[in-house]
Design goal:
The protein is 74% helix and 0% strand. By secondary structure, it is mainly alpha-helical. α1 runs parallel beside α3.
């Protein structure tokens, strides 16, 4: 038996290997979102989300990876919010244009 202080140290917690896989899926999702590839984005995001939900532990050594995942997820959220705002603006313009055409069509029927 070793005296106290000389006992072998426990190896650092390994963490969950799915964290790296989640990071790679997040990178693919962000790239696809930037390229406008909706199908690839949806697949990569679903994979990323499933991996993140399955992660059971994160070691101290994995903190930078976790920080990068959070940064990428924030960038994806910002990209989705921008796309939603642009789509909403286009829909508003289309609705306004449709009302204008309808009003014009109604006014020409009266003549």
């Amino acid at each position: 038996m070793l005296p106290p202080g000389l006992a072998p140290k426990r190896p650092p917690e390994m963490g969950d290997p799915r964290l790296e896989q989640a990071l790679e899926a997040a990178r693919r999702a962000l790239e696809a979102l930037g390229a406008g590839d909706d199908d690839t984005f949806a697949l990569a995001w679903a994979e990323h989300e499933a991996l993140c939900l399955a992660i059971e532990s994160v070691s101290e050594a994995q903190r930078p990876t976790l920080d990068e995942i959070i940064a990428i997820d924030s960038a994806i959220l910002q990209g989705l919010e921008t796309a939603l705002a642009e789509t909403s603006a286009r829909m508003t313009m289309l609705r306004a244009g449709g009302r204008t055409r309808a009003a014009y069509a109604a006014s020409t029927r009266l003549v």
